[in-house]
Amino acid sequence: MRQAGRYLPEYREVREKAGGFLNLCYSPALAAEVTLQPIRRFGFDAAILFSDILVVPDALGQKVWFAEGEGPRLEPIESEAELSRLAPHKASIKYSIICETVSRLRQDLPDETALIGFCGAPWTVATYMVGGRGSPDQAAARLFAYGDRAGFSKLIDILVESSIEYLSAQVSAGADVLQIFDSWAGSLPENEFQRFAVEPTHRMVRVLKERHPEVPIIGFPRGAGILTPDFVRQTGVDGVSCDTSMPLSFMRDEISKTGAVVQGNLDPLLLVSGGEALERRVREIVHEMAGKPFVFNLGHGIVPQTPPENVGRLVETIRSVSVAG
Ligand code: 1CP
What we know:
alpha/beta, 53% helix, globular
């Protein structure tokens, strides 16, 4: 979950050299370098490809840029007619550049370090494509979905198809595991969650499993709460990432019961504060999930103000409590 990034001075250096966030994503040597930086520093068990979920709209031909210090911006698609601005048949050109990063990484990483490829889930990517930026409530996409179901479904279908192509190419290039980030799944009411989060993810998982049965797929339906066990069963994901609000007892008793490997849910802000509070929570999580298939992870992305030494402490603490049982 965002292990690279602005909290590392060596990342900031490369980012400056790349001259723009998307340039960094499309420069295989530099993107591979920033993927490897946290692995070298902390020796994590898995590396996640350095890229972004908004590479997909960019590859589809939507105008995407990252306003310095503000986050992503896109030229919004506000109606079905505007879908004609997208050119799905051209997306593979940009996907192949990202896949060059994946191949480099699989060569450069130690054999025992898993490489995670990823994309955004169709719903979450659509919220940025329709809203033109991140928003607290994803109102623009929800209004599009409620007001013009057929039109919005076409956008979701384009994203399902293109994301399958993209993830499949990442596996062919060397990704060992795939993760689908549905960061805004929690803004959908239950019935719409089924239609726009579960269904599209299920379609992706079904095709990807046919093509690459050996590759585990992790879902991250952030904010799904008590709908998470059904999400796992209905989409067929092998693993599920839990956000910071998920009760540990629910992860242990209800989500593990689905058979999926559970991961999460450390609050990234505990990594900022560090100290006793961080250590205590790490022990709680490890003890609560003991005996269940569990991958230690954050509940959301690492934040730029995180002191790198706290990440080092976190790794030491996890390894010491795991060994101690
Ligand atoms: O230069 C910078 O540091 C910009 C910050 C940044 C970084 C480091 C952005 C902009 N994207 C990334 C990389 C990134 N994004 C990774 C790389 C792998 C890693 O090192 O861990 C991954 C997996 C993502 C995924 C991503 N991007 C998500 C899904 C996960 C999540 O955090 O919820 C989302 C929603 C995005 C969109 C995005 N990209 C960047 C920002 C600041 C945002 C959020 C914007 C918003 O909603 O306001």
